Amino acid sequence: MRALRFHKTGTLDNLIIEELPMPEPVVGEVLVQVKAAAVNPSDVKNVQGKMHITTVPRIPGRDFAGLIVKGTEGQVVGQPVFGSGGDLGFARDGSHAEYVAVPATAVVPLPKNLSFAQAAGIGVAYLTAWAALVNAAQIEPGENILILGTTGAVGSAATRIAHSIGARVIGTVKKKEQYPSHRIFAG
Prior knowledge:
This protein is α+β, with helices and mostly antiparallel strands. The chain folds into two domains: 2-120, Medium-chain alcohol dehydrogenases, catalytic domain (Quinone Oxidoreductase, Chain A, domain 1, Alpha-Beta Complex), CATH 3.90.180.10; 123-181, 3-Layer(aba) Sandwich (Rossmann fold). 21% of the residues lie in helices and 29% in strands. Helix 3 (123-136) crosses helix 4 (153-165).
């Protein structure tokens, strides 16, 4: 399989495309054929050596969407799924490859109304926003919320989540971003 990989940290120039053996899932894992993967700021920091849990060589990437090609109990081969996070891309190989082996609990079925690219963009940004608004702040319908940086991936996700809960969103933007903070690449 083809994968984006780095053998040492420091600069994005360390990223190379390599041919590697396909990962073999262990008990409790699924093998997913990656159809789309997001690039998050943490992926860039990872390659730069700013994520101290990273071991090399490593395939980066935390967010993905694709098809299960090898399943475990309860997982259906051919099922469209998406997933994110954990130590993916840091202490275990990530989603910037044609295939990724992940815990079966790390994937959820792909909703029919989302493309692979849309689902790959949900991961880190929406999980972070959900943790902040729902878990930590416990925002409720009718409350006012100020969201800083609504044009970024997490700020945009927070805005959508707060709005869907029924909160009144007040958003700020520092300046037009020269580089989007969250890009999605679909294959």
